Amino acid sequence: MDPNILADLADSYGLDCRRVTPVSGGWLNKKWRVAGSKGTFLVKQFSRERFSPRQIEQIDAALQRQILLERKGIPCPYILPYKGHPIRFLNDGTAYVVMTFCSGEHRDGKSVTVEQMHSLGECCGILHNAFARLPVQGVKGFPLHGSQLLDGLWENFHACSGGLTASSSPDYKAAVLAQETILQTLTPGFFDSLPRGIAHEDFTPDNMLFEPAGVAAILDFDRNQYSYVWHDVGRALLSFTFRDNRLDKEKATAFLSGYAKYRKFAPPDAADALRITWCIETPWWIQPACFSNSAPKTNRFRQEILWLTQHWSRLEEFLPA
User: Fold this and answer.
1) How far is CA 70 from the centre of its chain?
2) H helices of the chain, where?
3) Which helix (DSSP H) or strand (DSSP E) does residue 308 occupy?
């Protein structure tokens, strides 16, 4: 750990860090588990290589919402604020946050149980209801119009297809060109028909902790912003029920029934939740770097998007009726 952070933890938070253990995960950010007389905490240092000062300010605003959610009983870490702000800024520009260390286990589509999926659906619905009670003016992503995302998808397609060369990976080339047929079917009306509001925006296995009976904690609210809330639903379905080139209908049913207890949602809506996930994430995962020597997690995301591309018009067949 940076000696300046270690010293500041004592000076600004009164934490005696008797034991400091690095925690893996988080692209370019650094994390540590620190234990002392006041308990066990997670310290997260934000990467100045990854984030600009403006982006750090946006994360600070996102974490302010996490503080409000935790107070409302949402299972997420408690953040120790410093002078009213979640993020502590040191004079040298270092930015970090301190929060309680949550216990639990990570699960994936293979290891998660049906009971845990129902709990995850409930937590997602409760989370969206809590977000819906917060003001949206000034939140990153607000306002949001259907033409914005559609125009961005076309711009990304033209940039990628125009950049294809004889040396481009055949798989990458096919993945790029396959987007055009889908884009031709989309209209601003499709996007405008979907629920919008503040969403978690990173509803992946890395950010969920489970206990045997259900969800123990939802983590990493850094990216929460105004968006299409069903993106969280679609991402959860892909991350936790997609396996062997299909969706596990029993686990998908459990998640969706849990979600529908708290949010208006019908089984046919699940296909559109997957489609909006494709729309948001295709520019992230269909790019050259994701087709060459990618990490297992990146490969997984890419495979999910390719599966959605292939089955775009018949996703309902893979979902609970």
Assistant:
1) 18
2) 3-13, 53-71, 114-132, 146-162, 170-177, 179-185, 188-192, 230-241, 249-260, 269-285, 296-310
3) helix 296-310
Q: Which stretches of the chain score pLDDT less than 50?
A: none
Q: Tell me what pLDDT residue 25 has.
A: 77
User: What local confidence, expressed as pLDDT, does residue 76 receive?
Assistant: 97
What's the pLDDT at 82? 96
3-state secondary structure of 97: strand
pLDDT of residue 28: 87
Residues 88/82, Cβ–Cβ less than 8 Å:
yes
Instruction: Give the whole-angstrom CA distance, residue 162 versus residue 159.
Output: 5
160: left (phi over 0), alpha (psi -120 to 50) or beta: alpha
The pLDDT assigned to 26 comes to: 75
CA 109, CA 242: separation in Å to the nearest integer?
Answer: 7
Task: Give the C-alpha separation, 282 to 37, whole Å.
Answer: 46
pLDDT at residue 321, rounded to an integer: 83
Amino acid 294: pLDDT:
77
Q: What amino acid occupies position 188?
A: P
Distance CA 233, CA 250 (A): 16
- The Cα–Cα gap between 22 and 44 comes to 10
CATH fold, domain 3-100, is Phosphorylase Kinase; domain 1 (3.30.200)
Question: What tokens does 211 get?
Answer: 């206990």
Distance separating alpha carbons of residues 319 and 121, to the nearest angstrom: 15
The distance from CA 217 to its chain's CA centroid, rounded to whole angstroms, is 14
- Fold adopted by 114-318: Aminoglycoside 3'-phosphotransferase; Chain: A, domain 2 (3.90.1200)
Q: Is-contact 229 199, C-beta < 8 A?
A: yes
- Kindly list the domain boundaries of the chain, sorted by start residue: 3-100, 114-318
- Coil/strand/helix, residue 43: strand
Token pair of 110 as six digits: 């293979």
